[in-house]
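Structure ticket #2291
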Amino acid sequence: MSLSRDPPSDWPAVSELLDEALALPAHELDAWFASLQGAQLAYKDEVRTLMALRTYVDRENFLGQLPALKHPLPPLPNPGDAVAGAVVGPYRLIAELGRGGMSTVWLAEHTDGRFRRRVALKLARTAWDHSFSERLTRERSILESLEHPHIARFLDAGQDEAGRPYLALEHVDGKAIDAYCEEHRLGIRERLRLLLQVCEAVAYAHTQLVIHRDLKPANILVTPQGQVKLLDFGIAKLMDAFLAGVFCACAMGVLCDVRR
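Resolution: structure written out below.
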């Protein structure tokens, strides 16, 4: 049965009747259709058709599986150099740390040996395109405004020789907060102490007009010393001053209540 149909000419009238029909149990529909009279009769067939479509969708599990594609999608472009040992700007990739929908994060080190500290280098996952560059630029501007002990620090950003963007962040040697709690068998009090650190980081970000928008265990690491580090401001958003005040007031209220 085809689901692509033009809307009826008098949709408000049809919609009103359709609402009545949808509210009835199936065994009462025939009697209801038989009771239609006057101007309603002009829409009887239309409503019957729509009800049949509804039955078809329910029966055939309309959203249960994706439609078959007539032609396979072309493979996504591969950057080709996002492998261990590759050089991106002044950094050499060591090992992949994680990946998301648009990017991968690599453990990397300076190629010239001037700095021994390793970094977390953020790169595009499948392609180096303009939209990713814009997103990375936004993330950079947000991270540059944040300096907090429980937020992973921004260190560097730039482009390699091919003009592809990268973002270098503080490398956090830690575990996701849920895995850390389970591994160390933390009690409620210890878990709340970690949560307070998260709240402090989030409250601070709000004072800088930044909403993280992707708070989840994978983006909240805990170091071996029990220090929380909030990561990945890739989809963070700047808010106006009024909303920032509301968020900060709520966050500080929660912190005070928990500490009491």
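Closing remark: The chain has three domains: 13-59, 87-170, 175-259.
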